[in-house]
Write a structure and sequence with these properties.
Length: 56
């Protein structure tokens, strides 16, 4: 009996997830802008190790 209840709950959650999948959007959307800058932290590389610098 517990296995059957668990499977029912999983099936309901799966169906709800599939029904709601069309509202999902991945990544930043066009026109929303950038929330902030990007500071790369170098973890190796001699004199710049542990410092934030522009990698370009």
């Amino acid at each position: 009996m517990p296995l059957r209840s668990t499977l029912c709950v999983v099936a309901i959650l799966l169906a709800a997830g599939i029904a709601n999948a069309d509202n999902l959007k991945s990544g930043p959307q066009v026109g929303n802008g950038n929330p902030g800058g990007f500071g790369a932290l170098f973890i190796n590389g001699g004199e710049h190790a542990g410092k934030k610098r522009c990698p370009v």
